[in-house]
Amino acid sequence: MATLEAGIVGARGGGLISMLTSLLTLRFSQRAERARWAADRRWKHASGLASARREVYARFLSQQNAVILAAGGAYAQAARLSTDASERRYLAAQAKRLSPGRGPMPL
């Protein structure tokens, strides 16, 4: 009878260990899945922000270029209308500096 009781206790102990192992594995798997899901959402959010930032910056640059070209046109028109020769030279130089097709503007 003692061997039967030892066998039953051993079987219950093995079942208990197996159950605990399964529960712990399930718990850790769920935590890992939640962490993966959160990381994926953070990555998508960061990608969306970067994309929006690129779009806004591109729009800003195109509008900035339009302002620079308009300023160059205004300088050219002012140079044509100016009656003072030194002022005309200055305005013409500014218009040339702001004209399209030049490299980056000097500071």
Keywords:
107 residues; 2 domains; mainly alpha; single chain
Concise summary:
By secondary structure, the chain is mainly alpha-helical. The chain contains two helices and no strands.
Q: Kindly estimate the percentage of residues that lie in beta strands according to DSSP.
A: under 5%
Could you describe the largest sheet, including whether it forms a barrel? none
Number of strands: 0
Please state the oligomeric state of the protein chains shown: single chain
Number of domains: 2
Structure description:
The protein is an all-alpha fold and about 110 residues long. The chain folds into 2 domains: about 1-35; about 45-100. The chain is built from 2 helices and no strands. It has helices spanning about 1-80, 85-95. α1 runs antiparallel to α2 (about 85-95). The longest helix is centred in the middle third of the chain and has 80 residues, at about 1-80. The mean pLDDT is about 85.
Secondary-structure blueprint of this entry?
Layout (H helix, E strand, L loop, with lengths): L1 H80 L3 H13 L10
Helix pairs in contact: 1-2
